Amino acid sequence: MAAATSGMYRKEKSIQLKSSSAALYNNLSVLPLPGRQLTCFSTVHGPSLSMVTADGLGFSHRQLQAKEGGMTVSTSLLTQAAWCVLPSRVLLVLTSQKGIQMYESDGSIMVYWHALDVTEHPPAQAVFARGIAAAGGRFICVGTSSGLVLVFDIPPKGTNIMVSEVLERHCDAITDIAAELGQAPDGAGDLVTADDAGTLCVWSTGEEFALLSKIPAFGCTCSSVKLWNGIVAAGYGNGQIRLYEATTGLLRAEVNAHARWIYALDLAPQTGKLLSGAEDSFVHVWKLSRNPDTDDVEVEHCHGECVTDTQVCGVRFCDPEGNSFAVTGYDLSEIFRYGRT
Predict the structure, then answer these.
(1) Whose CA is closest to 43, among 67, 78, 74, 4?
(2) pLDDT single digits (tens) 169-185
(3) What is the C-alpha separation between 78 and 219, in angstroms, rounded?
(4) What is the CB neighbour count within 10 angstroms for residue 163?
(5) Closest Cα to residue 100, out of 62, 135, 127?
């Protein structure tokens, strides 16, 4: 571990939200639209999603409500929202206690609704969907509280979306799902799923999804997971970040990154920068790399930022290089932004 350096990023103008952010894992999604000089941000609270589009001059706001089946507004609570970028289209996916909603990227039109099957769950167990990722060029994967991962086949346009497969290798509620963001080495998986017990599954996507490795739990929830260049980066309830080989599931590094529960990780695909945010009010930027001689996975601490009196629940880079990032926290009705100095 290299010594910490600070002062690489400085705080920029924050973005006001119409409602505060709930204390949920990975509760911030960012969609940069580079060609149009726009960035969209979203965070959930209760039954509604706050969406803000920033264009350098000002901000436009939109609120989306959790839906039940039809168009009736429900008391269903949202659990997560994420933009899924596929080669042919971008969809905004919302998960809730009732099901999964998919919208056009600006939230204007709902293109698909999938209701959760309540009968699959024991009576006392909470029912929800959580964990969202675009994968394999044409799929969107969404996790459920019963440990299933639903694979949706997304057509290039239109509403003819269907469940093409259900992955059944987890016994606990899914917490997060991530797809390969860099260049996967030969034989490495391109999708990773994590659950409440801390078990990770690495998959290769395709017409049929294949399980490549299962990384066992060690008594701690895995709240957030990322996949880059065949390295699985996982954040845990004990404040640790663990790095595994996606091909074999071998542990390559562990970092005691935070004093409290990690709520969110993000990764900048072009540079291998890893962003972590936790209950301890800290946000850290790390740099992942592989040693060309030994193929060892190396981690370097680049930046630390204290967001005073804030239980951080969402962190995201705003660009593929990791030159800027956004942070939100429990009960915070704004999004803080930081850029490279």
Answers:
(1) 78
(2) 999 999 999 999 878 87
(3) 27
(4) 12
(5) 127
Report d(CA 253, CA 162) in Å as an integer: 39
Q: Which residues contact 292 (CB under 8 A, 6 or more apart)?
A: none
Helix or strand holding residue 178 (H, E) = strand 174-179
- CA nearest 149: which of 139, 137, 161? 139
Of residues 214, 207, 293, the one with CA closest to residue 247: 214
Q: What integer pLDDT is reported at residue 70 of this predicted model?
A: 54
User: What letter represents residue 280's amino acid?
Assistant: D
Alpha helices (runs of H) in 166-271, residue ranges in sequence order: none
In this predicted structure, what is the pLDDT of residue 186? Answer: 80
Identify whether the C-beta of residue 337 lies closer than 8 Å to the C-beta of residue 14: yes
Residue 253 CA neighbour count, 13 Å, CB half = 21
> Residue 193 and residue 246: Cα distance in Å, rounded?
11
pTM: 0.94
Helix and strand totals (H; E) in the chain: 0, 30
Q: What share of the chain is helix, strand, coil (3-state, %, to 5)?
A: 0, 55, 40
Q: Which position has the token pair 């490549």?
A: 212
Q: Give dist(CA 43, CA 55) in Å, integer.
A: 18
Ranges in the chain, pLDDT < 50? 1-5
**Alpha-carbon span 100 to 163, nearest angstrom:** 12
Cα distance between residue 303 and residue 252, in whole Å: 22
CA dist 4 and 65 (Å) reads 42
d(CA 80, CA 174): 12
Structure tokens that stand for 194 in this block: 């994590």
CA 33 to chain centre: 18
Which residues is 229 bridged to in the sheet? none
DSSP 41: E
Cα–Cα nearest to 222, from 240, 202, 249: 240
- Three-state SS for 35? helix
* 201, two tokens: 């599954």
